[in-house]
């Protein structure tokens, strides 16, 4: 399945799309997602609700390199990568962090209509970033899926832990 998905994207590459998706991968790299999530959440919801997106971004920026080191999965062949990456592949740090933050923003309670739209936009960006990692040939499908699942699970675990601590 991984090779089939990689082959699918490799055969459909175009110059314009490649430039756009490389740009998205740079703008939404894990360390920058941490900064974006912190600033936007604090500005829009205040520090109380900014903590979940912030903590999930921090947690995934710690979990991803540790997991990559443990799993030691090689990336797709370098000659197929449009934006070469040299560290291990599993899980995708981009997918992990952006899915974690999208999940966190979706969990913020009492959202006005604009915030619900923002959550939708965040999910659209998250899915696009995940597809970009496949299109650019820097991850296998299972790397992206594992990253997304770990990211969402991290957010849910942090949210659950906070709710347990908040109870009398």
TrEMBL record:
The name this protein goes by in its record: PAP2 family protein
InterPro entries: PAP2/HPO, PAP2/HPO_sf
Gene3D superfamilies: Phosphatidic acid phosphatase type 2/haloperoxidase
Pfam families found in the cross-reference section: PAP2
Lineage: Bacteria, Bacillati, Actinomycetota, Actinomycetes, Mycobacteriales
SMART domains the UniProt entry points to: acidPPc
Residue span(s) of domain Phosphatidic acid phosphatase type 2/haloperoxidase: 50-159
Keyword Cell membrane: no
Keywords: Membrane, Transmembrane, Transmembrane helix
Cited CDD domains: PAP2_like_2
Parts of the chain that traverse the membrane: 16-37, 49-71, 91-108, 120-138, 144-162
């Amino acid at each position: 399945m991984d090779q089939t998905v990689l082959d699918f994207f490799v055969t459909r590459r175009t110059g314009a799309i490649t430039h756009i998706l490389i740009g998205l991968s740079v703008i939404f790299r894990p360390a920058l997602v941490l900064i974006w999530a912190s600033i936007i959440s604090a500005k829009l919801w205040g520090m109380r609700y900014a903590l979940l997106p912030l903590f999930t971004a921090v947690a995934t920026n710690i979990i991803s390199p540790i997991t990559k080191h443990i799993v030691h999965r090689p990336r797709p062949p370098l000659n197929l990568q449009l934006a070469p990456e040299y560290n291990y592949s599993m899980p995708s740090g981009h997918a992990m962090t952006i899915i974690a933050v999208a999940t966190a923003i979706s969990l913020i309670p009492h959202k006005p209509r604009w915030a619900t739209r923002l959550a939708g936009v965040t999910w659209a960006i998250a899915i696009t970033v995940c597809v970009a990692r496949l299109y650019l040939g820097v991850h296998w499908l299972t790397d992206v899926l594992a990253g997304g699942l770990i990211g969402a699970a991290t957010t849910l675990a942090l949210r659950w832990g906070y709710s347990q601590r908040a109870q009398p």
